[in-house]
Amino acid sequence: MKGECGCAVDHDVFVFHTANPQGPDLCPNSFNIATSVQVATDTYGKVAISVINNGVTPMKFNYDLWDDDGILDDIEYFELIKHRNSTNQLIGDNQEVYLVNELSLSPTGSVRTGMAIIGSNLVAINTKTAVSTTMTHEIGHAKWGFLHPIDPPLNVYDTKNFMYEKAAGRTMNIRRYHFTKMH
Question: Please, are residues 97 and 16 in contact by the beta-carbon 8 Å criterion?
Fold first, then answer.
């Protein structure tokens, strides 16, 4: 599939079903990764980016380094990124998605559905609170550095933007400025 720019881009997504090595499996079976991958495929397909799901792989990684509470917090998330970078496995267009049982609260105190750091190629999804659009939204942060439209420099209330900050009511439209950065 080719877009307006005449180019097609494949984007590999590797999903890891994480579990704490010292404890039980932490990801509830109620989270449907196939639906999330379909939303990503449909959304990114609008701009000729195909999403290839390479399956769900169990991964034992003790991310409870800071506080043994079964919650992935900011410091532990940075440690996970450092670990993946040190093994040279987090490379190129690959996007790693970690399904975790719970994420720490945001700086504003709200419950997070996902977590991403710009340029990290690694996102974490809270399987208790995430919705089908969360993965696509978080990949937008991690892969391309997109911010929420309400944040500077845009400062607009745009619920029809796939980077809209609230999962409820989010419409998965890609704006022209997204397209330019993606290609």
Answer: yes
Residues facing residue 181 across a β-bridge: none
Judged against a pLDDT cut of 90, whether residue 146 lies above it is answered with: yes
What residue ranges in the chain does DSSP mark as E strands?
A: 9-19, 49-60, 95-100, 114-116, 122-126
Distance CA 11, CA 133 (A): 17
pLDDT at 73: 75
- Is beta strand 122-126 parallel, antiparallel or unpaired with respect to 49-60? unpaired
For the chain, give the number of residues.
Answer: 183
In DSSP terms, 72 is beta-bridged to 103
Contact 100, 64 (CB under 8 A): no
The per-residue pLDDT for range 8-44, each reduced to its tens digit, is 555 566 666 554 444 444 455 567 788 888 999 899 9
Nearest Cα to Cα of residue 137 among 183, 172, 96, 98: 172
What's the whole-number average pLDDT of the chain?
A: 77
Q: Where do runs of H (alpha helix) occur along the chain? A: 33-45, 74-86, 134-144, 176-182
What order of strands is seen across the sheet that includes strand 122-126? 49-60, 9-19, 95-100, 122-126, 114-116
